[in-house]
Every structure is written in C-alpha cells, then in structure tokens.
Specification:
By secondary structure, the chain is mainly alpha-helical. Helices cover about 70% and strands about 0% of the residues.
Length: about 70
Amino acid sequence: MSRNNHILNPLARDALDRFKYEVASELGLIDKINTRGWGDMTTREVGKIGGNMVKKMIKMAEDNMVNQ
C-alpha cells in the first residue's frame, strides 16, 4: 500500500528524499533499492528507514533547541 505523505514545507522535498537515501545507505539497503526499486522493499525495511529518519530528525531538532 502506498501512502502519499504530506510534506509540510514543499521546499524540503528534495532534502528529505536525499535524507531517505542517506539513511538507507547507512542501513546497507541502498544496493537493493538501486537494483530492485522501492516497490520490492519489505515493510520492515521501509519502516526501518523511516524510523531511523525520525530518530535523526528528532535529534536535529533537540540539538537546534539546545543551541538557540
């Protein structure tokens, strides 16, 4: 099932896409994505990518709050 996620800031779309690939690479999933595409990723794999993205974004937001 495909979800159409709503991006709050449309200017962030490209950065979020790059971020997704960066996290996938860190998790060792980039080769599978490049050869098979996102459609052949398991729910667990995609969830792992999304979960790690959220963790990193929360850390960035916390760091930003501390530094302000």
